[in-house]
């Protein structure tokens, strides 16, 4: 029954979204944005790909075929020089390192693309992911269309969160987890906790792991906050959406989301006030916020216990990150040019056993933190190029905002900066981060060319 429920939901979502695209009720790009949070709908084709990545592949294929039929360099105008420079270095260094430097460790997977040919799959994957810059520029014509794509990302987050909420309600009432975590060994039931007085589960919905659901819920909260302050309506019932997302974030028990929520909220407050979108905060208002938060955590025992067990008492360094950092510490030469895309597990695998992470044996793993993934795979040089292309887009956006004071532009600027910071902390949000950055880049190029 459990697997049948998941299968039904996945087929239902695929049919609905495909039908809306076919009958031109939504665009293929809007469908891609909507499906990004549905990280749990994925397929093994030698490498693991999600449904949203398949939709993005169709978009990239459409642009490529159009270029073959009618060559026009304007099609690639959305790909900034700095973005192209970063990709060229990442691809070229991955080829050289994989061919001449890295000694491959056989994983438990037999697929060529997960072993010696992993760098090939990573080049394809990164090409598809960064193709969003080209796709967005060629698919969107005006500000309204750009905002609509961002709204569909939010609709996807809200939908996957609502499914997660229903998952929890059914477990509480019927004692059945209809959407257990899917692993290579079959369905796996997540942890049961009783901090709120009744047995509850870590929900994952169709977002993959519970931590992924929590992180997408946080993105939804940030979109709501920024949009509300700029009078951009993502959802008519603001407080309903906000409460739902907060509940789902808590029920995911995602340590990453718990830690990132105050950080991103604080950064959003700072940016909104720095650019005079909100009035300067008074000492009294700041003190009242701190006091309210203190009393909630101090005297609401269930939430206090939950935060304590998931944040205060836990190691702040994730298992994969700890192993990767240990490997780089003993092999600092790889900090210069990296190990090549997708190759860090070949260097770090011995450290997994030494550090007691036996479940990583034979696995392909990367840095969970975005900064560590970029640094370990492309080195300091690649990381500088990564910062450069992000900084270039942010600089252009700020420059044009100071000239026109566009609320739409500041919406995309703030959101892309926050997701950039979020990606540096957790690479799981990479697809959402690249989408928003590409939308920001497209808006600037379209409106101020």
Quick description:
68% of the residues lie in helices and 4% in strands. It is mainly alpha-helical and 449 residues long.
Q: Sheet bearing the most strands, described?
A: 2 strands, antiparallel
- The count of DSSP E runs of length 2 or more, i.e. the number of strands, is 6
Task: Enumerate the spans where pLDDT stays under 50 for 5 or more consecutive residues.
Answer: none
Order of helical and strand elements: HHEEHHHHHEEEEHHHHHHHHHHH
Number of domains: 2
State the strand order across the main sheet.
1-2
Q: Count helical runs.
A: 18
Q: Round the mean pLDDT to the nearest integer and report it.
A: 88
Notes on the protein architecture:
By secondary structure, the protein is mainly α. The chain folds into two domains: 1-279 and 319-449, no CATH class; 281-317. The chain is 68% helix and 4% strand. The protein contains 18 helices and six strands. The strands form three sheets. The chain has a two-stranded antiparallel sheet with strand order 1-2. It has a two-stranded antiparallel sheet with strand order 3-4. Strands 5-6 form a two-stranded antiparallel sheet. A hairpin with a 2-residue loop joins strand 3 (181-183) and strand 4. Helix 4 packs antiparallel against helix 5 (118-130) and helix 7 (143-174) packs antiparallel against helix 18. The radius of gyration is 22 Å and the shape is globular. The model has no long low-confidence stretch (mean pLDDT 88).
């Amino acid at each position: 029954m459990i697997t049948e429920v998941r299968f039904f939901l996945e087929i239902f979502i695929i049919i609905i979204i495909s039908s809306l695209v076919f009958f031109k009720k939504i665009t293929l790009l809007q469908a891609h944005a909507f499906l990004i949070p549905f990280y749990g709908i994925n397929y093994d084709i030698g490498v693991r790909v999600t449904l949203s990545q398949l939709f993005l592949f169709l978009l990239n294929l459409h642009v490529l075929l159009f270029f073959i039929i009618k060559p026009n360099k304007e099609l690639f105008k959305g790909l900034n020089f700095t973005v192209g420079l970063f990709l060229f270095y990442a691809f070229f260094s991955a080829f050289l390192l994989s061919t001449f430097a890295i000694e491959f460790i056989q994983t438990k997977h037999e697929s060529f693309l997960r072993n010696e040919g992993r760098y090939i799959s990573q080049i394809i994957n990164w090409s598809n992911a960064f193709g969003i810059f080209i796709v967005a520029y060629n698919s969107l014509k005006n500000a309204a269309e750009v905002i609509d794509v961002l709204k569909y990302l939010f609709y996807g987050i809200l939908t996957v969160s609502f499914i997660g909420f229903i998952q929890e309600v059914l477990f509480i009432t019927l004692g059945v987890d209809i959407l257990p975590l899917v692993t290579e060994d079959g369905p796996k039931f997540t942890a049961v906790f009783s901090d709120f007085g009744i047995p509850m589960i870590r929900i994952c919905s169709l977002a993959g792991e519970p931590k992924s659901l929590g992180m997408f819920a946080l993105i939804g909260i940030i979109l709501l906050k920024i949009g509300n302050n700029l009078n951009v309506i993502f959802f008519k019932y603001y407080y309903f959406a906000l409460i739902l997302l907060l509940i789902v974030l808590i029920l995911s028990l995602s340590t990453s989301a718990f830690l990132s929520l105050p950080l991103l909220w604080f950064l959003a407050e700072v940016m909104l006030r720095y650019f005079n979108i909100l009035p300067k905060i008074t000492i009294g208002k700041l003190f009242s916020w701190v006091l309210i938060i203190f009393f909630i955590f101090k005297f609401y025992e269930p939430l206090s216990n939950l935060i304590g067990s998931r944040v205060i008492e836990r190691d702040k360094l994730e298992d994969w990150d700890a192993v990767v950092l240990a490997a780089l510490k003993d092999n600092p030469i790889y900090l210069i040019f990296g190990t090549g895309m997708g190759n860090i597990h070949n260097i770090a695998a011995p450290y997994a056993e030494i550090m007691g992470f036996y479940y990583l044996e034979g696995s392909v793993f990367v840095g969970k933190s975005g900064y560590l993934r970029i640094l370990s795979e492309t080195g300091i040089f690649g990381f500088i190029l990564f910062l450069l292309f992000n900084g270039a887009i942010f600089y252009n956006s700020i420059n044009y905002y100071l000239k026109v004071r566009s609320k739409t532009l500041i919406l995309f600027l703030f959101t892309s900066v926050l997701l950039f910071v979020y990606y540096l902390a957790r690479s799981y949000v990479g697809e959402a981060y690249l989408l928003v950055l590409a939308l920001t880049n497209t808006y600037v190029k379209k409106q101020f060319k």
